[in-house]
Every structure is written in C-alpha cells, then in structure tokens.
Amino acid sequence: MTNQNNCIIKIEHLSKAFGDKVVLDDINLDIRRGEFVTLLGPSGCGKTTLLRMIAGFLKADSGVIAMEGTDISDTPPHRRPLNTVFQRYALFPHLNVYDNIAFGLKLNKVPSAEIDSRVRKALKMVSMTDYEDRDVNSLSGGQQQRVAIARAIVNRPKVLLLDEPLAALDLKMRKDMQMELKQMHQELGITFIYVTHDQEEALTLSDTVVVMSDGKIQQIGTPIDIYNEPVNSFVADFIGESNILNATMIRDREVEFIGHTFECVDEGFGINAPVDVVVRPEDIYIIANAENAKFTGEVKSCIFKGVHYEMFVETDKGYELMLQDYNAFEVGSTVGMFIKPSDIHVMQKERTCNTFEGKMTSPTTVQILGAEFECGECGLQAGEEVYVSVNFDRVELLDNKEDGTVMGEVEFILYKGNRYHLTVLTDEGEKVYVDTNDIWDKGDIVGISVAAADLHITKRV
Amino acid sequence: MKFNIFSRRSSWALPYALFLGFFVALPLVLIVIYAFTNSAGEFSMVNFRKFLLQPEAVNTFIYSIGIALVTTFLCILLGYPAAYILSNKSLNRSQTTVLLFILPMWINILVRTLATVALFDFVHLPLGEGALIFGMVYNFLPFMIYPIYNTLQKMDHSLIEAAEDLGAKPSTVFWKVTVPLSMPGVTSGIMMVFMPTISTFAIAELLTMNNIKLFGTTIQENINNGMWNYGAALSLIMLVIIGITSLFSDGDEQSQNEGGII
Amino acid sequence: MKKFFAQSYLWLLLALLYAPIIIIGVFSFTEAKVLGNWTGFSTKLYTSLFSGGVSGGLLSAVENTLTIALIAAAVSTLLGSIAAIGIHNMRGRKRQVITFLNNIPMLNPDIITGISLFLLFVSIGLTQGYITVVLAHIAFCTPYVVLSVMPRLQQMNPNIYEAALDLGATPFQALRKVIIPEIRPGMISGFILAFTLSIDDFAVTIFTKGNQGLETLSTFIYADARKGGLTPELRPLSTIIFVTVLLLLIIINVRSRRAARKMENI
Question: Distance between CA B100 and CA B111 in Å, rounded?
Fold first, then answer.
C-alpha cells in the first residue's frame, strides 16, 4: 500500500487455463517503477505465460493487469507502452540490422533524422556500432540478441520485458550479457521484467525475484531474502543448493533434526511441531577433529568445484548432508560438524500427510483419486462423504504401473537427508506425496497403492 | 502450452475452405450422384449394368489396365537404375543431369505426344500399340524417376556404410538395404505413373491414329455425347481402381513429391 | 568403369527422352509442311506463327492459354497464400479436413477433376467458357500454392509476428511488413507452379471450355491433330514453349539453391 503511485504494473487475481490445465492461478503482483523484477521458476510454472499476458499476446481468463493505474487487460499489444525481447530473438530476417531497430520508430512516424540518431545510440548501447548494414542472419546468437535488445529499447518503452533472453547463449557469453543487462538497466532507469529458469541469473540480476511454481507465486522478495529465508521447501530446493530436512520444533529456539537437538533463532511454531529445516551446504562447518563437534559423520564423496569442494557426508545417525568447504576432506575419514543457530532456517511444513476427499462405496471400500481402495471396516455406510488421510511413508509406489490401484507420474523429487519426498501426479491430476527410500526419476510412471490399514478415514461434515 | 496469437487467423482459411467445398468436394459428390441415377434423375444402377453388359467397354477397361501396368513396369525397369545413378554421388555429381530428367515433366503433355508422333514419323515406324507404349513411357518416365531419386537421395547413407561394415557384399547391400529403403519412392512413382496412364485420353488417339481406344477416351466420348450419367459411372469405376492402387501408397508422400519438383 | 557405364546409361536415356523434342526443334527451322522433310534452313514458320497469317486460331489459342494461366495463377496465389496462413494457425480436426480437401485435386486424375467440374457447371447452369476454365484452373492450382507457402510459414520464427505487434504494428501492418516478406519466396514459387500447371493443362480445360469456340493451346493441338494434319507452326511454338519452360525451371532452381545456401550460412 505504500508508494501506490510508484507502482508501474499492478496485477490482480490473474488466472489462465489452457483447456483443463491451470497455468496461472490467482496471481497478484506489484511491480515498482525502475525495478528489475525476475520471474523465476521451472519450465511450465507459468512465468512465460504471465510475461506474454503483460505484453498483450495472451488474454487472461480473469483478473486485471493495470499499468500506471489504467487497466490494460484489453489493450492490444501494439498499443501497450512496453517492448519485448524474445528468447529466440525474433529479428525480421528480411531486414538488416538498421531496419530491424528502426522498425518501431518508422511505424510511429518518427522523423528520419531522429530515427537515425536513436538507432545509432541504441546500437552503441548494445556495443554493436558499425553493424547497421549487416544482414541479421549473418550475426552470431549473441549479436542477434544485442540487436533484439536494441530494437526494443530504441522505442523508449516504460517497461522492457525479457523472455529468457540469454537461454540460447553459451555460458561465457551469458555471464558477459548479464553484466551488460544490469548496466543497461541502471543507465536506462526503466522497469525490466525478466523471465528465467536460471536461479543464479535471477539472483545476480534482480532487485526483486518472484519465484513461481505450478502457476502460483511461491515467494516474492529480494535475492537475499529468497536465498536466506525461503518460505517453503520448493523455494529452498529451487534456489541454490540446500539440505532440506524433516525436523521437530521442540520449543521456541530449539529444533531437533538429523537425530540431534540444535539451538536456532526461530520462534512461534509451537511445542513439538513438525517443521522443515533448510541448511545451506556452505553453512555447515566441518573440522577434522570429531571430538568437540556437535555431530560427526563419514565423508562419502568429495569433488572439487572450482572454488570450493562439495562433499557428501553420512552423519552418525545415518542422514546424508551436502557440504561445501574450501578445504578437502578425505573420503572415508570421520569429520566433525557444527551449524550456527542463525544458519538454521525453520519453515512451516506445507503438509504432514496426504488428505483426499472421498466417498464410501461400500462399508469396506472408499472412492479416492478416481479409483476404489479397500479400507477395512470403519463403521461408515456406502455413499457417505469422507476425508481419507495417508501418511507419506505409507504410500507404496510400484514399478509396474498396472499393479497399482491408480497410475501416476513422478513430478518432483526432494531429498530430505535420509529419504526422498516425491510428488506424484495421478492421471486424474491429483497430487500424492510419498516418502520413500527407493530411487525414482522425475517422469517415471508408477503404480500407486495403499494398504487398507493405512487409510485413515474420517467423516466429512 | 505455447499459445499462438495467430490462432484467430485460422479463420483466414475460411474463403478457401468454402472454395474447396464448392469446387472440390461438391463436384465429386456430383459424380457419385450422377453415377447412381438415370437420365430422369431417379436412383438407379442402370449405368453400372450397362457397363457390365457392354463387352466393348469392359474390354477397353481391361486393356487400359494392361497398358497402364506395362507402362508402369517399363518405367520402373528404366527409371530405377536412372534414379539410382543420379542419387549416387560416386556415379553422378551433376545437378544439371537431374534437372534434365525432371524438365520434360513441365512440358505440355500434348506437345510431348506430338513430339513422339514426329519421332515415329521421322524414323518411319508405324503408329500403333508400340508407339502407344513408347509414348506412354516417354511421357511418364520422369514421374517415376523423380520420386525414386528423391527417396534415394534423402536416404541415410550411413545405413549403407553400416551394412558394408557388417560384411555385406555390394549386391547384398543393394538388394537388402537400398531397395527396401527406396520402396516409398517406388510406390509413389507407381502412383504417379499408373494413375495418369490409366486415366489418359487423347494421347492414345494421337499415337495410334485413332486405332486403339483407352478407357479415358470412352469416358470422354460418353460425356461429350451427353451420356453424363453413364460417364459419371465410368469415372467412378476409374476412381475405385485408383483408390485401390493408392491403398498401396501413402497419398501424402505423392503430393509432397509433386509439390517439391521445383 | 562403373561410372562410365552409369553415365552412358543416363545419357542414352536422356537422348531418348529428348530426341522427339530435338527433332521438333530442328524441323522448326525449315518450311516443309510434313515433318521429316528438310527443305533448307528457314525461319518462315516463326514469322508466320507471329504474323498469324496461316493460323489465326493458333495465335488466339496461345493468347487464351497465357491470359487464363496468368489470371488463374494470380488468383490461386492470393487465395492459396491467405489460406496457408489460416491453415498454419489451425489445429486438430479442422486442419485435417481442410488439408485432406486440399490434397484431393493433386491426387485426383485430371480427367476426374475435369468431369467433376463439368458436372458442377452444368448442374448450376453456368454457361461454359472462359470463366469456367479460369475457375477450374484456380481449383486445381491453388492446392499447389498452399503446398509451396506452408513450408515458409513453418520455418518462420513464430515470434516475429508478435515482435512486430510489440513494436507497435497493427495486425495488418505486421502481416504486410513481416509475414508477407517472409513467405514471398513461397508465393513466387507457387505462382510459377500454378502458371505452368495451367499452361500445361489439357484434360480439365477440354471438359470445362464449353462449345463457344474457346481454345487453349492444348485443345487447339488436340483438335488440329484429330483433323489429321498438324499445323507446321506448332513446331516453332513447341520449341518456344520448351525453351521458355527450360529457362523458367533454371531460374527457379537457381533461386531455390541460392536460398538453400543462404539457409546453410545461418
């Protein structure tokens, strides 16, 4: 609510579905004038869809996009005062560099002397002076992208939209362009909305990062906030490397995980509450002397990563942790470890068990996930509506998809130190969360079954 | 997932869709309607009965299929080696030669036929069945060479190397790898030769001094003489034969070949 | 050695293929009424072809052929290009149906196309003549235009239309300044293809030309040949047609090869 007039784009309750698939689900976002905002998320999270809606290429099913206080939801793209840099450049192949950049200015009937000076200035800005007459097809990927940027900024848009502009470039070129984009943003002073799936790029460039997943905004914050204070295990896992572990909040400022009790700085979770804990690999201190350490473990692997070493350590209680340190520790050796209270980040668990809405089909069977499950005698009659809860570790995944009661696809995998936490999407589009020690891959098609005794049924009122 | 702003432009095809409906679909429906009605416009099988009861028409029909089969066979026999040589880099590197083989496809069929008649006149050979078959092969050979050449050229050359690497003799490679892989081109060529030869008319008259009649001519004569219903029935019979032939070939491929000539 | 035999085979076949054409070409430069008699070099047949003295019918047939081909090719190119943009943006069942219908004129034998259109015109009571021939030619030429424009659309970066809108172009401006330049080579190939197909056509024309005395080159030759005597002026005409087609094909091939080389450079 502060600085209302400083907000250049305001998105409210924006939703979009393609057929049955919801790609954007009630998005609310304020973008400030002059800000470098990054929409970050895995492919299919809805970030590009959101960008295309801001650009006007797509219409929302519901919701409002306002620019400087006016609703632009129905404004066609050519009347919106913003310009886009496309992932695959989208330069006009039949025009040379100069005519590509001058395209927008000519359409707006800008005098040709002014076009000339503005095109040259834009070319200078992207370090492409003297390329005016070149055929765009003869340029390298990096050069084409520079022309694409010049073509957009020459129109002096209020907002520049960038759709994964560096995704097609090689690593070194990408790093150089990142620096240049950052510099350009400062020089131009306009708002940049940047879409990427590269978290490092997002953290490097942005003033604000918007982490998206499944068509929802997971977290909005500065890069430092997002990195240090992820709101949930998805964000923690997606941003940087992390150890995400099941934990119990014993009381305020005291949390138990990997079989040990640690002092922490978080409060207000309650007594003995199940929580998730995130510890960044560089925040675990490792020493050769195991005796005075908080906990110990055995080094399982140690790989040099350029600046630091990345190690996997199996702790004394059988959990696996990832560590980063400037020193290498020999594989097989026993080491000691510490974690500072301020480096332990406690997060509310998003869920503690699966809960499905269902219906009794007979006194001993229940309909959930689009199939009938045996559930044993529970004193309820056919037709009664119920909630069914199943603990994560009681869901059984089967190699042979026909063997399960329903079929599903492994969508997301999170390693939690001593087990995997999987998100499995069923054919009906419902999510089943599973804790398992077995190794599955993303995209595996599995059968899902649950033993009758593991279905906990309560009547729905 | 990716949305295309163009999608509203799908309506741009509407004028053409209507055009196709009126000038392509409807006329074919009319052939069927005329074929199954008598001259009074009532449903009737009289046209088909007439065809079966006329030995002359049936004979012409069978003779035409025979000529078409012979022509197709000769075209494969002459065209396959040519296509193979043209596509083989160690035997031919010249694109111009390829172009020379394709070029006659673009000359008016009557001019080509006329040229054949001229050739026969020139070397003092009589016109007749021999001239007919020569003229047909001459007219349609490029249509056999081109699709086979196309398939052979697109063929992954490493397959041949793989076969050689596995110890196959050159002749084995040819019969077990090259020929099976070029079959789509051959079937496409068969379609492009068999179909026009069976449906051709006028050419036969010019090449045989009106002595031999093909099925196409029979159809044309009936239409010209106002026997529209009977002519439509004969057309439908021809369509059925062609439909049966095209079951052996993928229609899309042929259109691609034809369209890709230039 | 193998190469020698292979090359010999090719040239033998070519000699056979071209012998009739060459004979016609050679004998177009002599005056003899009957082909095969050489009565000395002369360009009289060429001059008489263009002065129209002996064969006024022939010259008007050539004129008809060319104007019909031009109109049919122009309309087909316009109709087919717009249709291709539409089809390119269609999905699913509708696209399948229209693609199927588009394939029919290419797969159908000419005689069937001709008869079916003849039946259409008599059914709706349209007097057959110049108009019906043009309509018929548009019907069988447009599919080829669609077929030559589609690949250009498919190769096109789908974002460039959006990029134009983004830079302030209205949808119509984006079409004119971005889409059309991109598909122009396909449109040109399509036009040339339609033009040659129309010139070449015999079977469809003969069923749709009616009996008002309209003749195109093909039908003229046919009628002439049926009368028994072949007009000697057909020889220079065939030669001219042959050379023109040769030139056209060379132009198209050079164009497409240059385009292919350009694509490789990217």
Answer: 17
Residues A266 and A226 in one domain: no
Contact yes or no for B216 and C104 at CB 8 A: no
How many domains would you assign to chain A? 3
Q: Are A309 and A363 part of one and the same domain? A: no
> In terms of domains, do A246 and A160 share one?
no
Residue environment code for C210-227, b if the CB has 16+ CB neighbours within 10 A, otherwise e: beeebbbbbbbbbebbee
CA-wise closest residue to A414 among A241, A240, A237: A237
Contact C185, C27 (CB under 8 A): no
> Looking at the partner chain, which of A79, A86, A137 has a beta carbon nearest the beta carbon of C163?
A86
A157 vs C: CB within 8 A? no
DSSP string, A406-427: EEEEEEEEEE-SSSEEEEEEET
β-bridge partners, B37: B43
Say yes or no for a CB contact (<8 Å) between A52 and B3. Answer: yes
Domain boundary among A233, A258, A286: A233
Token pair recorded at residue C180: 């059309």
CATH number, domain containing residue A215: 3.40.50.300
> Distance between CA atoms of B141 and B103, rounded to whole angstroms?
11
- The phi and psi torsions of A194 (rounded to 5 degrees) equal -120, 130
Final residue before a domain boundary, out of A211, A233, A255: A233
- Residues 162-221 on B with a CB inside 8 Å of C are 195-196, 198-202, 205-206, 210, 216, 219-220
With CA atoms as reference, the chain B residue closest to A45 would be B1
Phi and psi at residue C161, to the nearest 5°: -65, -45
**Contact assignment for B1 to A58 by CB distance below 8 Å:** no
- C182 and A93 within 8 Å at the Cβ level: the answer is yes
Whether residue C111 and residue B103 make contact (CB cut-off 8 A), yes or no, is no
Hey, which chains touch C, using 3+ CB pairs under 8 Å? A, B
A313: domain CATH number is: 2.40.50.140
Q: Are residues A273 and A396 both part of a single domain?
A: no
**By the CB < 8 Å criterion, does A111 face chain C?**
no
Containing H/E element for A195? strand A191-196
The domains located in chain B, with CATH, are: 62-258 (1.10.3720.10)
Interface partners of B (3+ CB pairs, < 8 Å)? A, C
- pLDDT string in tens for chain B (262-residue length): 233 444 466 778 888 999 999 999 999 999 999 999 887 778 888 888 888 888 888 888 999 999 999 999 999 999 999 988 888 877 777 777 787 887 777 777 787 887 788 788 778 888 888 888 988 898 888 888 888 888 888 877 777 778 878 878 878 888 888 888 888 888 888 888 888 888 888 888 888 877 888 888 888 888 888 888 898 999 999 888 888 877 765 544 444 444 344 3
pTM, whole model, 2 decimals?
0.76
Nearest CA in chain C to A156: C167
| Same-domain status, A165 and A181 | yes
- For C163, nearest residue in chain A (alpha carbons): A90
Q: Is A77 in contact with C160 (Cβ distance < 8 A)?
A: no
Q: Are residues A392 and A282 in the same domain?
A: no
Question: Which of chain A's residues have a Cβ under 8 Å away from the Cβ of B1?
Answer: 18, 21, 23, 44
Q: Are residues A219 and A337 in the same domain?
A: no
Query: Could you list the residue range(s) of the whole structural domain that residue A296 is in?
Result: 241-348
CB contact under 8 A, B90 and C104: no
Does B223 contact C at CB distance below 8 Å?
A: yes
Distance from CA of B11 to the nearest CA of C (A): 6
Q: Helices C234-265 and C2-27 meet at what angle, rounded to 10?
A: 140
The verdict on a CB contact (< 8 Å) between A77 and C181 is no
Q: Where are the alpha helices (DSSP H) in A232-298?
A: 233-238
A84 contacts chain C (CB < 8 A): yes
Does residue A213 share a domain with residue A245?
Answer: no
